[in-house]
Design brief:
Length: 253
Amino acid sequence: MNIPSARRGPSFAAHAFICWAGEWSCEGAERVISGAASAGLDFVEIPPLDPETVELTAALGSSVLTGCLYTHIGTLTGCLPEPGELRAVARALKSTARRAAEGGVELSIEAVNRYETYLINLASQVSDLLDEIDEPNVFAHLDTYHMNIDEKGFYEPILSLGPRLKYIHLSESDRGTPGTGNVHGDEIFRGLKGASYDGALVIEAFAACNEAIIGATLLWRDVVGDPDALVTDGLAFLRAKGAEHELFEQPPG
């Protein structure tokens, strides 16, 4: 699925569990890919729920492995993170990044709210970890659902990362349809424009939820309603905000 030639800038995507399938199997993958193509998305985010090696990303033909690569979601010690823990994380990810580079894969570090991890909750903490890892194929990933919980706003954290930010989940405050909750779309897109962002704009919501991630996502009720409307309305909202804030540039001539 190619980006239309009339638009320059970010591509649009969605998590595979957004509504088309609750598991990544051959049958589920067909539904996801077909649904994404019909919705006009550029790609889908595949959840490797139990990956054994980073080579899986390369084998699937993907160039990016992103998410909470530094933690096991839901594991909390009840204590502040110790410097030794973060140094160990940086060493492990540095080694992983070098291995990933051999397969042409980049790694992205996602900040997650304090109820799901005690290690990295803020854009500033992602930036610090990137400094420690110090590898060219590692960058930052933000998620507006998590930002809504832990950041003091959306504009400044996005702007602070600048070119280090190459991936973002556009998630609503209740993980439902973007544009229907408390997440400030204008502040987000103003920040993305200021940071000259040209990465993916990814809808992450969970209408079809795999049992393996129910506990991690803490979804105990239907927050979506009509899953088809989630895709169409959510994508329309993101496109409109992107155009309003001039995130997409017309080609010269």
